[in-house]
Structures are given as structure tokens and as C-alpha cells.
Amino acid sequence: MGEIVWASASVHAPQLLTRPPQEDQAQLDADIAAMAELGDLLDETAPDALIVVGIDHLETFFLSAVPTFALVTGERATASFAGHHYDIPIHQPLARALLEGLVESGHDMAYAQEALLGHAFAVPFEYILAGRTIPVIPMFVNVYLPPLPTAQRCMDLGAAMAAVIAKRPERVAILASGGMSHYPGTWKYYEPEYDFDHWVIQEIEEGRPESLLELSGEQLDEVGNGELLPWMVMLGAIGAKRGKLLTYQPTSHHGHAVMRFIPETDGRGQEHRDMPRFGGFEFKGQGYEFYKYPEPESFPLNKALFLLRTDDDLRARWVRDMDGVSAELGLSAEQAAALKEMRTDAVTAVGAHGILAITSMLAIQVSAREAGIVVDRV
User: Fold this and answer.
1) For residue 192, which of 226, 243, 354, 358 sits 20 to 30 Å off, Cα-Cα?
2) CA–CA gap between residue 135 and residue 132 (Å, rounded)
3) Which of 339, 336, 345 minimizes the C-alpha distance to 367?
């Protein structure tokens, strides 16, 4: 009879791989040390497979198809980010069983037999899996392209996964890759909601994940915590288990957390405080503000950003002939003018999705500097 022998949640911030000098290196080192501790627990529990419940930063999927939940079921899991590359076998029998079992239980799963994974997978592959010969199963939860799945739906999906695993022979590890509060590509980038993060950690350490179930997608967007949805899948899979915080790092732009759940351990990782609900945060209730449904009129700009980020030759042509290539890409005059500014705020102001804007601008600015063009900031 199968069982979940290891369960954890971890930050996947890209800075953990790129190590930019403006980051507090001690904070990054603390994250990596906590992830290494999770890796040691993999050695201790010896799972047959590692399910990584992650997200897409519009790297693997695009607006041509936005799955709410998706499994990667091919032979290999390939991930690439910032010069780091991974090619890991997928546990085929369990991946197929999950796909079929989840659909049979009423969960409409998408699947891909080939997918290039981004840093939500590359970071845990680097610091948690860390070369261990454990086959993986990548799973995606949509957290940045509304409408988002509800927290309850994510927990239900996790419970259905546990039911499939229980009928299998494998010993399984499950990792939730994501969180906590951050707002990349938006005006609120340097204003994370750290108190909300601490409230979430308190509720989970106290074994009260149900406290999070009433949070809507709009509310998670407001507190910069859409990436808690993969956590809800993991929590649904393991049932009533207390977590323990291994580290929380309040960086200048992102609350980094690493927690363990199975094997269970005594004590708390965060000092117990009588925290107000939601950490005292008061929701405005005005809908999605930071990561909205991309309106159709913004599609040419978002597609252009996606292509410029993923196609090195196109990006090199664009920095040499911005007007000509922008016309090829079908941009309006307003969109082309914003793109030429090479700033995240400029393109988001005319409809670009924040996540796509910041990741694409970073790549565009590198190419611009290589072409001798002076660039001020993202």
C-alpha cells in the first residue's frame, strides 16, 4: 500500500540561482541551508518518487492554453533557468496513475508529455533534489492567470492524489514549490505583506490549514500569495498534519519560507504569538489588482514579450531594429512605444502581464546592454 513519507513546502525565488549582488546573501544562504535539510530528509525517508507541485511564470505555458491543473507525464522532466539545466526521469507508472485516477475522481487534469520547466522547478531540483536519483512528477497549479482555482479545490485535488497513492505500491514525497508574499512586475514589488505570511505560518504550524480555505483568488492576489495554492494541494494530500518552519527570510521584496510536514517533528519554528486574523491585513475587496485576466487587446504585447524572452535571435534583432520588429510582431503604436522604454512599469501600463513583463524585460535589457544601449532599470 502506497504512502506519503515526505512532505514539505519551499520558496523557489530565482535569486537563489542567480545570486544578484544587491540581495542579502545571508538570507539566500539560510534558504539554501533549509532546503538542504529537506534533502537530508529525502535520504532518511527514501521515497520512490517526488511529486513537485509548482507553478508557471508563463514559461512553460502561454495564453494559447492556460491549464488550471496539469501534470507532466513524459519520460523526462527538463528544466532550465539562468544557465542551470536539469534532465530528470519522470516516474511513469505513478504519473499515469495520478492522471487517470484524478480524472476518474472528477478532477479535470491537463497533461503534457513534453514541457520545459522554469525556476519553480529548477530551484528545488538544484537545492532539494540536489542530484539524488529520485524520479519526479511535475504538477502545475495556475496562480497568475485568473480565474484561479479556489483553495478548497486545491485541497480536494490533494486529497484525491492521496487516494490514488494509497492504492499504489510507491513511497511518495510531495513538495509544494512557491510562496510567500511577493509582487514581481508590479508597483508593490518592495512592499510584501510579511505579517500575513507570519499568520499563515502560525495557522499551519498549529494544524489549522482550514483557516486558509475562505481566501479567494482575489484576496491571495491582494496579499501577494497566489503561490500558496500549491501549498493547499500538498496540505490536502497529507491531511491534518502540523508543519514546522525551517526558515523565513523577509527579503526586500519577497517573504521566503521553507517548511517541513512529514516526517513530523515536535515544536514550532516560529515564536508563537497571538496574531490577529490575516496578520491584521484588511482586504479592500476590489478584485484582482496585480495579476489580472489578460484582456484580448493586450494579447499582441504579451505574445511579443513571450517571444522576445524565449527567442534569442528575435531579441537580438529587436534591439537593433525596434520599430521594424515591433511592426512584425503586430504591436500598436502605444504598445511599441512602451516596449521601447524597456521598463516593466511602461509595458504593464499598457496591458502587459506583470510576471511576463518583468521576466521579459530582464532578458531584453541584457541584450540591449550587449548591443551598447544604455538601460536604466527594469
Assistant:
1) 243
2) 9
3) 339
Cβ within 8 Å of residue 37, ≥6 positions away? 246, 258, 260
Residues in Cβ contact with 198 at an 8 Å cutoff, skipping those fewer than 6 apart: 248, 270, 273, 275, 279
pLDDT digits (tens, 9 = 90+) for 15-73: 999 999 999 999 999 999 999 999 999 999 999 999 999 999 999 999 999 999 999 99
Q: What is the DSSP letter of 65?
A: B
In whole angstroms, give the CA distance from residue 103 to residue 109.
6
Peptide bond into 124 cis (omega under 30): no
pTM attached to this predicted model: 0.94
- In this prediction, residue 378 carries a pLDDT of 56
Identify the three-state secondary structure at position 252. Answer: coil
Q: What is the pLDDT of residues 339-358, one digit of tens each?
A: 999 999 999 999 999 999 99
Among 49, 57, 56, residue whose Cα is nearest residue 73: 49
Which triple of cell numbers denotes residue 250?
523577509
Amino acid identity, residue 253? H
Please tell me the total number of residues recorded for the chain in this structure: 378
Low-confidence residues of the chain: pLDDT under 50: none
Query: What pLDDT, on a 0 to 100 scale, did the predictor assign at position 163?
Result: 98
User: What is the second-level CATH architecture of the domain 3-280?
Assistant: 3-Layer(aba) Sandwich (3.40)
The b/e string for 35-69 (b: 16+ C-beta within 10 A; e otherwise) is beebbebbeebebbbbbbbbbbbbbbbbbeebbbb
Pair 275, 193: CB distance under 8 Å: no
Q: Is it true that the peptide bond before 35 is cis, omega within 30 degrees of 0?
A: no
What's the pLDDT score for residue 271? 76
Burial class (CB in 10 A: 0-12, 13-18, 19+), 25: exposed
Residues ≥6 apart with Cβ < 8 Å to 274: none
Instruction: Delimit the domains of the chain by residue range.
Output: 3-280, 296-370
Instruction: Tell me the three state secondary structure of residue 101.
Output: helix
